Amino acid sequence: MTDFTLYLPGILLAYAAFLLAIASPGPNILAVIGTSMSVGRTSGIALALGIATGSFTWAVMTVIGLSALLSQYAVALVVIKIFGGLYLLWLAYKSFKSAASNHDIEANELAGGTRTPLGYAKRGYIIQMTNPKAALAWIAIISLGLTDGAPHWVGMVIVLGTFMLSIIIHVLYAVAFSTPIMVRLYGKARRGIQGVLGAFFAYAGLRLLISRN
After folding, report:
1. Residues 6+ apart with CB under 8 A from 111
2. In total, how many domains does the chain have?
3. Can you give the C-alpha Rg of the chain in angstroms?
4. Which residues have CB under 8 Å from 192's CB, separation 6+?
5. Is residue 36 a contact partner of residue 43, using CB atoms and an 8 Å limit?
6. Which residue, 166, 188, 43, is CA-closest to 105?
7. CB 120 within 8 A of CB 35
8. What is residue 114's predicted lDDT score, i.e. its pLDDT?
9. Within a 10 A sphere around the Cβ of 195, how many other Cβ atoms?
10. Of 18 and 27, which is predicted with more confidence?
11. What DSSP string describes 100-160?
């Protein structure tokens, strides 16, 4: 129990970073929204599940890769946390820039015509796995929960927890945004949401840069 409480703050911070990262619709989320609106809720959910599975794959590969690296070079954790901190600060900049913009979100259907639910799931997985920014984001997220000498179960808890959150949030996007009114409601709150995201990413980035252990 003592070990769990020791690593719990970092785990929760990693969860929070992941949740807020997908609270700001990027290309993947916009694809889910657009598919739900133009094709249907079932297709949107299938695409969402594919994206969530791809996110899980990236998380597993990141944890395995970082664990292997840290087992050989303990000093690498400092470099990883510096990189992760800088990336989170870049996300903060992007969020603040979006908050200052009047540009509305643009949700469009995927190109290539309609597919079966399995086809949408496969497309979602491919989209996520071919997104180079996903690797950068997962390095930053995982590094928030890792400390020097952290046991392997910490990475497992982060991976499994974020996978469940990914399924829930992506499916909620598919269900909630299957009607145009939800896009309009989100558009009205978008700037405030982006401002909150920017503040959190700035805090998380500075936290990683200041505490490198």
Report:
1. none
2. 1
3. 18
4. 99
5. yes
6. 188
7. yes
8. 65
9. 15
10. 18
11. H--PPP---PPSS----HHHHHHHHHHHHHT-HHHHHHHHHHHHHH--TT--HHHHHHHHH
Other C-beta atoms closer than 10 Å to the C-beta of 28 total 24
The pLDDT value given to residue 49: 92
Please check the confidence at residue 150 and state whether its pLDDT lies above 80.
no
Q: Show the domain range for 131.
A: 2-210
The distance in angstroms from the start CA to the end CA of the chain is: 21
The rounded distance, in Å, linking the Cα atoms of 212 and 184 is 42
- Whether 96 and 195 have beta carbons less than 8 Å apart is answered as yes
Q: What is the pLDDT of residue 83?
A: 78
Rounded to whole angstroms, the Cα distance separating 133 from 144 reads 17
Q: Which of 56-60, 143-147, 162-166, 168-172 comes out lowest in average pLDDT?
A: 143-147
Distance between alpha carbon 184 and the CA centroid of its chain, in Å? Answer: 23
| Cα–Cα nearest to 143, from 60, 62, 37 | 62
CA distance 40 to 50: 16
* Tokens found for residue 39: 């094709």
pLDDT score of 53 more than 90 = yes
Q: Determine the longest span between alpha carbons in the chain, in angstroms.
A: 54
